[in-house]
Amino acid sequence: MEQSTTIFGIRAIIEAIESGSSINKVYLQKGLRGDLYFQLEKLIKKNKLSTSVVPNEKLDRLSKHNNHQGAVAKISPVEFYDLETLVEKTIESEVTPLFLLLDQLSDVRNFGAIIRTAECTGVNGIIIQKSGSAPVNAETIKTSAGAAFKVPICKVDHIKDAIFQLKASGIKLVAATEKTDDSIYDVNMNQPIAIVMGSEHKGVSNSVLKMVDYKAKLPLLGEIESLNVSVACGAFLYETVRQRMS
């Protein structure tokens, strides 16, 4: 699967971007020059694609020693959804909306585990940011047990834009954070909800916390100060299921 989602060569990557392919990341050799490269660079900036400057040896490995011309890209094996369209369809379906916003989550295994739990709990869509988020790659799909093909995933330029859009549609934002005295068990999850989970190391960013409707935490009865983000996400989702089934 990983091989089928790798393309190499500047022109091939340009064509993939222009055709609307979902690019996870572009790897570039330091010091590239030329008209074709500048065309690629312009497209990367326009589409806000994640990039990394790497040694030629890494490009050789990624391209399996084919002629990469100093550029290799990873294409997502799943198609991404438009957030506005997905929210509209969810509301029209007359189910109580349940979305997940992942604020800079970067570990692919955590991402995959979250997607799997999301599928099991009826999440209508997962929203990630184009840059800085874990990619949807072969490892993500494997960890999700294939759920990445079943749960709609939306990529947005900025998480804040998604929050504004969700709020405009009457969906309340619930952030999972230790920076509160409120318990998840005291929040009404039986309403249109989007749960916000933060990064593995920093949690939900302060700028996002200022925008949410509710902040909630899980009780921690041991000595360790926090849960793994995928485990915490599962607890939030199943509390939502419990309330909605009551």
TrEMBL record:
Keywords: Methyltransferase, Transferase. One of its GO terms (biological process) is methylation. The keyword Signal does not apply. SMART domains: SpoU_sub_bind (SM00967). The keyword Nucleus does not apply. GO terms for cellular component: cytosol. It holds the Pfam family SpoU_sub_bind. It comes from the Bacteria. InterPro entries: Alpha/beta_knot_MTases, Ribosomal_eL30-like_sf, rRNA_MeTrfase_TrmH, SpoU_MeTrfase, SpoU_subst-bd, tRNA_m1G_MTases_N. GO terms for molecular function: RNA binding; RNA methyltransferase activity. Residues 6-81 form the RNA 2-O ribose methyltransferase substrate binding domain. This is RNA methyltransferase. It comes from Tenacibaculum holothuriorum.
